[in-house]
Each structure stands twice: as C-alpha cells, then as structure tokens.
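INPUT
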Amino acid sequence: MNLLRDSATIARRNVIRIRRVPDVMAFVVVQPIMFVLLFAYVFGGSIDIPGGNYREFLMAGIFSQTVVFGATFTGAGLAEDMQKGLINRFRSLPMSRSAVVAGRTVSDVVYNALSIIVMSLAGLAVGWRIRGSFLDAVVAFALLLFFAYSFSWVMACIGLLVPTPEVVNNATFVVLFPLTFIANTFVPSDNLPGVLKPIAEWNPVSTLTQAVREGFGNLPVGTPEPTAWPLQNATLYTLVWAAILIVVFAPIATRLYQRAGAR
Amino acid sequence: MTSSPSDTSVSARGLIKTYGEVTALAGLDLDVPGGTVLGLLGPNGAGKTTAVSILTTLVRPDSGSAHVAGVDVMADPRGVRSRIGLSGQYAAVDEHLTATENLEMIGCLYGMPRREARRRGLDLLEQFRLMEASDRPLKTFSGGMRRRIDLAGALVADPPVLFLDEPTTGLDPRSRGELWDAIRERVKGGTTVLLTTQYLEEADQLADEIVVIDHGRSIAKGTAEQLKRRVGGEHLDVHVSGDGAVATTESILAAVATGPLRIHHDDGELSAPVSNGVEALSTVLRELESRQVTIVDIGLRRPTLDDVFMELTGHEAEAEVSS
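OUTPUT
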C-alpha cells in the first residue's frame, strides 16, 4: 500500500529529527518533568482532595494535558515543512496525498509515548503509584495515545493554515489552555462554579482524565459516582470523541495539504 | 496526444492563472523538445514560478493545457509526478537530516526500494562531490551545498524531465558554476530541462532555447544568438566622470544610437546600441574630446542578453528585480 509505505517513510524522517532537534527533546522530556514537580510540590501541599492523595489524583490530569499539548508538534512540524519548502517538494513527488500528514500524526505518537514514559518515571519519583490492575493501566496508556493521535489531526489543520510554526504555538495555546484547565485535570469538576461545571463534565479532556484515573486506580477513596453521563462512561465517550475528530479532521487536513504552499 | 515512453517533451498551451487581482500568467505557450534545455527568462513576478508550479502539478491553471513527457498534467498529475524532478529556488531539503537520509527519503517517496534509494543517493553524492555531507545534518553546510543536494534530490529517481526554478538565485559565483556543471552533466545524459532564471548569463550558459516572459506572457523566443542578433549590431559603452558629463555624453550618444540608451547616472556609465561600431566609436570619441569630457573608459562590445531584455521590455531586468 502506497499510503502505508509513504507514511512510514515520512514518520521515519520525523523520528530521526527527534534526536537531532534539541528544543523538541526539551519539550518532550523537560516539560513533563517540570509539570509533575510543579504541581506535586507547589499545589500538592495546598490542594486537598477529600479522602485522597492529591499527587495521585493529579497524575492523570498531567498525563492528559501533556499529550493534548503534544499535538502542537503536529501543527508546528507541518507549518515548518511548509515554510521551508518541503511540502512543495513532497507535493511534486508521486507519493500518497495523505502520507505527509498521516506520517506526521504517527510520528507524534512516538513523541507522546516518550513523554508518557518520562512523566511516569517522574510520577513514580514523587510517590505516584498504579493501584489498579496491569491490564487497566495498559488500556489507560493506550487511551491517552489514541486520543492524542486523534487530536493531532486537529492541530495538523491549524499547522497547514498558518504561515509559521510560531503562529501555531500562539494559536493553539489559546485553545489548549481552556481545554485542559476547564476540566477535571487538576481539580475535581464538582468544585467548578456555574456554567464551567457542565462544560468540564462534557469536555473530552475530562473524560480522558477520568478514564485514565480510573484505569490507574487513582480515584480517591469514597469519591461519589459522577452524575454527568460522559464521566460515567468516560472511556466510551472519549473513544467516540477521538473517532469523530479523526473522521472530521483527517479529510480536511488532507485537503489543506493538497492546496498548501501553492503559489 | 498519446503517451509514449520515449516522449520526454514539455508543452503548454494558453496557460492562464490569476490570483485575485493579480494575473500571474496571461496565456503562456511553451514547447521544450525532448532532450533539450529551455531557459525561461524574466524578472521577478513575470510568472516563471507559476509556470513551473503548473507544469509540476502544484497549481492548477484557470485555463489552458499542458503535457509533460506525454502525460496530461491536469488529467493525470500523478503520472506526471513520477516522470519529473523539481528543484526549487529554496532548497527543499530537511536540514536536520544528513544528505544520505534526505536522498533516501526522496527516493522512497518516488517508490524506490529503500536500499536502492540509498545506493542511488550515495552515487549522486559522489558524482556531485558531496560525500563529506553524506552523514552530517545539512544545517552545518553552506547554501550552495544545500542547493546541490536539493538538485540531487530531484535526480534520485532519474526522471526524464527536470524542472529547475531559479536554481542559482542567491548563490556565489563559484557555487553557481558548480551547479551549472551538475546540470550540464544531466543534459548530456539526455534529460529534458526547463529552467527559470533571472540571470541572463545563466540562460546563455545552459539553454538551447530561451523564452523571455514578462507580465505572464512570452514576449520573445529563440537561441541566445538569435535574441542577441535581434538587438542588432554592437554596443558602445562609455564611462565618464565630472559635473554634467553624463548629460553631455547622453546627447552625443543619442545622435549615433539605433535604440534606447541605458544610463547609470550614479556611476557615470552609459550604453548605446550602434550599427556601425567603429565609425560610431570614433565620432563619439572626437565629440567627447572637443567638449572636454573626462573619459574613464570607452569600448565596443557584442550585445548581451541584458541588452535583449532592455530592447524587448523597455526596462532593465535588474531594475525590476530590486524594486
């Protein structure tokens, strides 16, 4: 299959770059460690979770936030390829029309997997433990990677629409900060005021966090059953969102790629 | 037109492309017989890059038709892509990859097996004397070297037709010469080349035939010799200094010139097309001496493509570029 082969070629190229570009390495390795330490030590002492340990509660939130932010790479990488003229070269080659974006989203799973490994080690160092079964934990990690993969198609569209990688970073932060903070990532959504509560409850980042928290057995003892449907069916709801993101944004990204950089 | 494997020609009929208010191409016709080099010459904004983008399937024209190596560009863009190599004015190589990794990647994307792509890449690096770049990331190398690797990228799959969009713009003379050698090497092997350039010397050096374009349409074509002959005769160049020297010289030259003068006021340099060179030279010398103008330099020369451009468009290639 042309698409698979070409996507693999593009993904291989992107993975080679992980080792060569120091600032990417910093983002992948340093930022997750920083988040774990900051939240564990700065907020960890001040925020109380009834019946639980905030650091354990927190880890699932940091996992979710980091993989969602990791999708920024997809957009920034494509914007850079466009700026450097590589997209035009690719478009002049007899390769699959979807492979450049598909290969990019696949290689970003590798970035995210690296981030998750680093984060897990940092988490273990500050006292986080997986309390559930091995299988549940594996499913939780897989869900993180799959949701991140689906979200990177959204970022791919942004990357192909803006003129420079810097703009991707600015544009995505405006979206990603609310998306990852108006959620149960760092505080229980029950504590949120007014309209923020339902938003958080229906936010797929919340359900991802909820599913991961359940999978790791990190929910505080005696936590009441969530009242909102998405949080009750966190894994299913997250998977449906991921599927929708791919079905909607993959064709848009492919279409944008075909027109990209054409002058 | 039917596609045959031996057809390596490029042709375009009535290509029109507008971007909003801007007309990039206003009905361009092109013909490049197989195995020859066509130089598409024109200032910035003349439509050269748009023409290449259409022929390489990156952009669809508003109207018109084009065939590359016997394949219809609009009906079968993928077929065209497998028969062409494109090297642009910005080296489209991944600067974080080594030369070998770049060429291997491009070869794979042409559908070559990975091992073969790698071997072919190494062959090209050796041929272009770029072996030192083979296993170091490209960002450590000069612009000229990256351009040659970019050109090598266009050659990995040995395509019968090559598009070079301003291949040497911004390069120093030595790098330019090296790139020209590499291109000549390919042409010897029978590759068809469509080359855009704003350097008249480049078209003169490489192209079998030259098409001059301005404002999106072809305004002249022929060999470098034919175009120069079109300007006719010889050129009388005069370099003067002193107050009012340029104005005085201008009036003297105007009397013998057969076409528009070219004047660089700041440098005190003037140039005029003349029909009888020796007679014009002695007339002008006599006049200049009698009016006591200080002559820095004076001489006759054969017309260059710069003169052709001036004659055809009424403006200088260089002047438009800098504006």
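end of record. Residues 233-302 of chain B form a domain with the Alpha-Beta Plaits fold (CATH 3.30.70.100).
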